[in-house]
Amino acid sequence: SSATRTQTATENFAQLQLNSTPITHALSDVVKQEDWSDFKFTPIRESTVSRAMTSRYFQDLDKFAVSDVIIVGAGSSGLSAAYVIAKNRPDLKVAIIEANVSLGGGAWLAGSLMSAMIMRKPAHLFLDELEIPYEDEGDYVVVKHAALFTSTVSSKVLQFPNVKLFNATAVEDLVTRPADKGTGVQVAGVVTNWTLVTQAHDLQSCMDPNVIELAGYQNDGTRDPSQKHGVVLSTTGHDGPFGAFSAKRIVSIDGSQKLGGMKGLDMNRAEAGVVKHAGKYEGVDSMYFAGMEVAELHGCNRMGPTFGAMAVSGIKAAEEILRHFA
Ligand code: AHZ
């Protein structure tokens, strides 16, 4: 009976108090004396839950249909860039498009199966800023689990009110327009779709994609000279089922460059090369790159499981983007 349960709970509680310090948790004041038998949630209708989610999602689609910064791919480089941009310019709308359900790319396991994340100095200064603990090994530092880096930077990025993550959403193409001056093209946005639809275009016809346009254009597609135009930062990683997406697309659009193709593993050369070439893409206006996609674009080596260049190339690209908006 309920009376017996309450009595037993009270006895257990008294016993606990005698034996040890009281257990405290978020519900300590609600669940008095560890009696969960009458625990209740506030009532809710199923439709209320649906509306709470869909109304926000569609408001976000509406709000971010024109964005200042579109980041394609939320791996370690994209998240590092997003953090720096959103922190410095809370007035810019930053849309992050991630093909996967989870953000973080290869950074959950540090790109290997061994958990710990290595960063060569001075990339540890970014960890200091994010307040991520590490072991200092002299020339490099070690975060005890890559997931600690990935979850912390993700959590900080997602808390910025000017950032929206659209996950399970793939960028299928770039929006391009004739360049303002001279010949060539400029990037004016991205074409998105649910990732599962992107993967099943062969099976389903007429699953039309969506578009996020960059800020700063007029109805006829020309740039509005009175405002700073938006930019796309691509950080889709090295080639794979989705990776190096914009690098492959841009060389076929641009025609002036060939895809460099990522070279074999060489940690020292790779990290320096990726940082050196990160940032604005010369040839197609409004396009920036960071992370391993830079290695595919410019033919740098791969670095294997060391993440300093992912954070630093993201920071470098972010700095260039912030300078553009200054
Ligand atoms: O799902 C992809 C991943 O989360 C996402 N992505 C790729 N194509 C996309 C598309 N639309 C939307 N078309 C897309 N999202 O981009 C993310 C890339 O993350 P990543 O961790 O693969 O790339 P990164 O450059 O940030 O980090 C690379 C980490 C590596 S790989 C490596 C090596 O091979 O040597 N070494 C390091 C440190």
Key traits:
326 residues; alpha/beta; 4-stranded mixed sheet; 6-stranded mixed sheet; 15 strands; binds ligand AHZ; 10 helices
| Secondary structural class | alpha/beta
Beta-strand residue fraction: 15-25%
What are the bound molecules? ligand AHZ
Strand order across the biggest sheet? Answer: 7-3-2-11-14-13
Number of strands: 15
Q: What is the CA–CA distance across the termini? A: 69 Å
Shape: globular
Tally the helices: what do you get? Answer: 10
Describe this structure in words.
This protein has helices at residues 2-19, 46-63, 76-88, 124-130, 146-159, 195-198, 245-254, 267-277, 292-298, 308-325, and strands at 66-67, 69-72, 94-98, 117-120, 135-136, 140-143, 163-167, 169-178, 185-194, 210-214, 231-234, 263-265, 279-280, 287-289, 301-302. The chain is an alpha/beta fold. It is 37% helix and 20% strand. The mean pLDDT is 92. The chain is globular, with a radius of gyration of 24 Å. Bound molecules: ligand AHZ. Residues 72-78, 97-100, 105-107, 111, 170-171, 235-238, 242-243, 245, 291-293, 302-304, 307, 310 line the site of ligand AHZ.
